[in-house]
């Protein structure tokens, strides 16, 4: 092996190399704060994962995949924190770890807002109206260009917007 010509050979401190710690020793108060904040964040992450699994099987798979993303992001953050506490990472990684912890907190907040958001109601049209056949309820959508409420047609049907019969759901013609 050749020697690195750009390496600095001068010591950073006076004394034996083994006497100086790589990181400053944390006080017991610092450790208590870190453990308290970590526990609170961990509880929220676990609760959000439970909610994502419950909502993922009942409502939408999007909830489940959001929980998986949260789990992976949290696992990487926990691993970096453990390496940092062991002294295997440089102190310059502290900012990256703090950013990832804030990212996990933000992801938990976004996931909970997404899971517990009330269903949206169209303020102009409402959610449903009597359909054109059989009196069944059909969803409505608001057209911002025409400023009108239109029926949302089921699969295999299209919305007829011709002047003769505007807003009627008609089945697609067989090709």
UniProtKB/TrEMBL annotation:
Q: Which UniProt keywords apply?
A: Membrane, Transmembrane, Transmembrane helix
Highest taxon listed in the record's lineage: Eukaryota
Q: Where are the transmembrane segments?
A: 37-58, 64-83, 95-117
Cited InterPro entries: DUF2678
What PANTHER family does the database record attribute to this sequence?
TRANSMEMBRANE PROTEIN 243
| Protein name, as recorded | Uncharacterized protein
């Amino acid at each position: 092996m050749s020697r690195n010509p750009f390496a600095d050979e001068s010591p950073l401190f006076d004394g034996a190399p083994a006497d100086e710690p790589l990181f400053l020793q944390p006080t017991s108060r610092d450790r208590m704060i870190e453990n308290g904040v970590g526990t609170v964040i961990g509880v929220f992450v676990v609760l959000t994962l439970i909610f994502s699994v419950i909502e993922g099987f009942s409502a939408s798979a999007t909830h489940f995949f959001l929980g998986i993303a949260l789990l992976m992001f949290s696992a990487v953050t926990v691993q970096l924190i453990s390496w940092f506490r062991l002294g295997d990472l440089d102190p310059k990684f502290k900012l990256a770890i703090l950013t990832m912890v804030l990212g996990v907190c933000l992801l938990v907040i976004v996931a909970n807002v997404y899971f517990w958001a009330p269903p949206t109601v169209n303020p102009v049209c409402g959610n449903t109206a009597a359909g054109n056949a059989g009196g069944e309820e059909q969803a409505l959508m608001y057209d911002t260009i025409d400023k009108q409420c239109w029926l949302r047609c089921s699969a295999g049907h299209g919305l007829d917007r011709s002047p003769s019969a505007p807003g009627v759901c008609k089945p697609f013609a067989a090709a």
